[in-house]
């Protein structure tokens, strides 16, 4: 294969953390990253006034990017995602890009997750047509004719992208500007912009599923949050075994989720206690 880069390229995974304030689970992530040096890099988008206070030995030290304020359910979240991707794309070694929140945890060790991502033929973006008030009901007729109702898609915000798709999302402006222009008539554009755009132009490149497990059994606008009382080896194993099978490189697999959310601050200690035996780090 023709080498398109003027140097030996060690492929990295860019871990993109979209937060507002503190990152209470950073000690767990630092343990996860240990041993993966040279194969990952962290980027943090936070509230502009927030300074992430971690030790110089942390993977998060000095990794905040120039940020803007975000508001839940608004176009500002799409802006933050594109800002994270744009900063991460400046490092030519970054090959895969994972969007994470302050309440996310890894479910496996670094090597397992790294190999899963780098060996995948697809990007992991959830994109589906939902004929409900929260699906097609969020479509705005102002988006036509560029985006038809039949092309409108919904999906989880938490994506994983190959470099080529990350470049396309940052570079394109037609559909982004449409979303921005009519953001006032769109609900939760962060759940629709990337799923819709990629479905229209790069549908064959996405696995049509997310790698981040969440519990929506609360049936509210936010998923369930898990704290100290919930953290057991059995609970983490149940998340890893939640899906019976999914597709990976066109073959069925039982490893469908690599990350999970939403975990609170007081979940840190029990997670650190079980991570060596359950997550293997």
TrEMBL record:
One GO cellular component, as annotated: membrane
Transmembrane segment boundaries: none
Keyword Nucleotidyltransferase: no
Organism: Phoenix dactylifera (Date palm)
Topology of the protein relative to the lipid bilayer: Single-pass type II membrane protein
Name listed for the protein in its UniProt record: Glycosyltransferase BC10-like
Primary residence: membrane
InterPro entries in alphabetical order: BC10-like (IPR044174), Glyco_trans_14 (IPR003406)
Highest classification ranks of the organism: Eukaryota, Viridiplantae, Streptophyta, Embryophyta, Tracheophyta
Keyword check for Glycosyltransferase: yes
Compartments (UniProt record): Membrane
Gene name in the database record: LOC103704784
GO molecular function: glycosyltransferase activity
Keywords from the named record: Glycoprotein, Glycosyltransferase, Membrane, Transferase
């Amino acid at each position: 294969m023709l080498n398109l880069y003027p140097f030996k390229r060690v492929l990295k995974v860019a871990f993109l953390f979209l937060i507002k304030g503190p990152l209470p689970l950073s000690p767990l992530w630092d343990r996860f990253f240990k041993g993966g040096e040279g194969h990952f890099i962290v980027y943090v988008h936070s509230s502009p006034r927030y300074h992430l206070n971690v030790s110089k030995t942390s993977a998060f030290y000095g990794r905040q990017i120039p940020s803007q304020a975000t508001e839940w359910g608004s176009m500002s979240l799409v802006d933050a995602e594109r800002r994270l991707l744009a900063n991460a794309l400046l490092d030519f070694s970054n090959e895969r890009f994972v969007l994470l929140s302050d309440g996310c945890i890894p479910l496996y060790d670094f090597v397992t997750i790294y190999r899963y991502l780098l060996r995948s033929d697809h990007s992991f973006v959830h994109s589906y047509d939902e004929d409900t008030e929260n699906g097609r009901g969020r479509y705005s007729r102002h988006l036509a004719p560029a985006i038809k109702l039949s092309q409108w898609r919904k999906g989880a915000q938490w994506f994983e992208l190959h470099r080529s798709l990350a470049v396309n999302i940052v570079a394109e402006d037609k559909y982004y500007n449409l979303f921005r222009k009519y953001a006032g008539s769109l609900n939760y554009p962060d759940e629709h912009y990337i799923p819709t755009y990629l479905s229209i132009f790069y549908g064959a490149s996405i696995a049509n599923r997310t790698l981040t497990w969440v519990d929506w059994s609360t049936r509210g606008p936010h998923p369930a949050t898990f704290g100290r009382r919930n953290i057991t080896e059995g609970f983490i194993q149940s998340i890893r075994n939640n899906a019976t099978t999914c597709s990976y490189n066109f073959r069925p697999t039982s490893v469908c989720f690599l990350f999970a959310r939403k975990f609170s601050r007081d979940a840190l200690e029990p997670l650190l206690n079980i991570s060596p035996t359950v997550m293997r780090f």
